[in-house]
Write a structure and sequence with these properties.
Organism: Pan troglodytes (Chimpanzee)
Helix content: 40-55%
Pathway: Steroid biosynthesis; zymosterol biosynthesis; zymosterol from lanosterol: step 1/6
Order of helices and strands: HHEEHEHHHHEHHHHHHHHHEEEEHHEEEE
Pfam families: p450 (PF00067)
CATH superfamily: Cytochrome P450
Strand order of the largest sheet: 1-2-8-5-3
GO cellular component, one term: endoplasmic reticulum membrane
Largest sheet: 5 strands, mixed
CATH class: Mainly Alpha
Radius of gyration: 23 Å
CATH topology: Cytochrome p450
Oligomer: single chain
CATH architecture: Orthogonal Bundle
Enzyme class: oxidoreductase
Distance between the termini: 57 Å
Length: 453
Amino acid sequence: MAAAVGMMLLGLLQAGWVGAGPGDGEGDRRQPLVHAADRLHLHPQPGLPVPSIPWACHSIWEKNAYEKYGPVFSFTMVGKTFTYLLGSDAAALLFNSKNEDLNAEDVYSHLTTPVFGKGVAYDVPNPVFLEQKKMLKSGLNIAHFKHIIKKKEKKEKKEKETKEYFQSWGESGEKNVFEALSELIILTASHCLHGKEIRTQLYADLDGGFSHAAWLLPGWLPLPSFRCRERAHWEIKDIFYKAIQKRRQSQEKIDDILQTLLDATYKDGRPLTDDEVAGMLIGLLLAGQHSSSTTNAWMDFFLCYLEQKTVCGENLPPLTYDQLKDLNLLDRCIKETLRLRPPIMIMMRMARTPQTVVGYTIPPGHQVCVSPTVNQRLKDSWVERLDFNPDCYLQDNPASGEKFAYVPFGTIWSTMLRLYEFDLIDGYFPIVNYTTMIHTPENPLIHYKQRSK
């Protein structure tokens, strides 16, 4: 049944269920917007098939549309109209908008609710979601991360766990670095942020719920990935419920996010329910896992090991938060990686009110989209737009929050580079896998060799 439904939907897409509306190539500004989908030829990266829908190779498609039609264009796909805002001036509309005008819940709710659960994130009104984010933020402060980093480097359980993970690698070999980092981040993040009780490999099935199919298709379809997502959601929820009840009954105060949420209250004084706590923890872990594993996998392996020796000393003693702050080259490499390979594919909002941008009117009902991948490589914004050049940030004066955000990346790479030397295999640098909602690397195999002691 699931296979039949999938084949039927693919057939409809391949038969041309990607429509276009009126408008010419010059863009008649009396019309709402230029519809570009039917006039663009896709030019995918070498090794990637020409897709039936733009999303499978979306950045190439968007770049062509930008060059041909300008910063604002729209197309219709599967009965929905999408309007893209490319370039800093056009994209500012989305970033500066109010939620009641360009709404996030209307776009993301059906994608995130089956994964996180009801009553959290985009399943609730925006003011409630903002309160929930403040609760999470209160547990993600610099003092908390200093404590985590210090504990990670102690010869205790978490360091033992990390070393045991790498012991399976042996002295040398080849690894899919994205898969390895995903596993490692799930293990360490669930321990450091969520508490020692919460550990499971079911996150992989739950994470599979973030797919093109989940975004485009109704959740009741009997697709295998949907079934795995639902099963994993309830099994993970059950693990959280047991951990929550155990913590409540013991009355033990432990410095982690679980305890932060158990102690939190809304403005009206209402505490979080067990269901809300579980959903927020799932959301926090998956959100962090996506950005961390993808960005770390894309991080090039020319990160300067000598800089770490200079900052930390010849014997590479245990890391501290202050030492991580001084790894300036590492910070610049992270920032440049995020520019060239941002984890998120598209940022979307639903237009609830008419919006005007560069002379065009976006009517209610359009899904308004911004692509970090395209915006951060436009030739009229970046001189060396495709080159990896961390030194372009030498004159930057980053805010404290920005450096704080890089701590998890620095911790991972500073630890890995102490243990191994890394090299590309025959010079292979992975292309982007555009078939996923997150910009993961395609077949990111890397050669590693244990450092001499």
